[in-house]
Design a protein that fits this description.
By secondary structure, this protein is of the alpha+beta class. It has four helices and twelve strands; from the N terminus they run βββββββββββαβααα. The strands form three sheets. It has a five-stranded antiparallel β-sheet, with no helix packed on it. A four-stranded antiparallel β-sheet has the order 1-2-3-4, with no helix packed on it. The termini are far apart.
Length: 263
Amino acid sequence: MAITPASSAPDAPLQLVLFVQAGPASSPSYAMAQVTMETQDGARLDGIIRINTVSPDSPATSRPRLLLPKPGHTAFIVFEHEVVVASITKSSSFQDVIRLRSDKHVTIEGACEEDLIDTKGTSSCAIFIKGHGLARISATQTNVSHSSIKTKIEQAIFYGTMSDNVLDFSRRPYDRYDIEETEEAALSISAEILRSTSHFIPPLTSSMEAHLQNRIKAIRALILHLRSDYPPVSRPTSWRLLLDAEKLAAAQAIWIACEERSS
């Protein structure tokens, strides 16, 4: 249970958000109930938000905790191995999950709200990951229902490939995107890597060879992620991705050859 920040206003009714579990312990379903406590008429149910992003193995090993930091537009539901991020406003049905990798043997041991409000109205919480350290999760108010597929893929190929990464960026069962969306996002990311316009690519590195190697690594990670987590893309898209990868490999080979001749 969490008390909404709106309840702190003078003469405001007490507004609560309850985290509810239903069904058998082996496969429960979850929801958040928004309740207003009225002085004379008792409690009023204002709405129910179903949580559809919880992984099947989370309920078996952990007791969830509900956090509702100021300004109160987003709730964070903390499990042992994941955090569900869910909007509680009427104008948004956004839900997503941040999950820890099972092969890293890390768990979430503690969590707390952060009530520092910035100009963007960001909701934030801090979690302590055993064996790794502290992490902050922030969310801004949004009108979309889920993260774009381009964002999901970028997170997987740029953050998921880091050696010390403890987050699981693999595609989740509830992530349902059309093949056209997948191909459009993949081609856009590939083009940005090729032109060095992606904000994930550092503009300055120790050498041009290292810069080219970073881009080759990124486009390779893109292709491998598509093959492992998404349905097969069309032949034209496959050839386009391969062509972009070959252009980068050729650029690196030419640069190395020029460096060897000038030395």
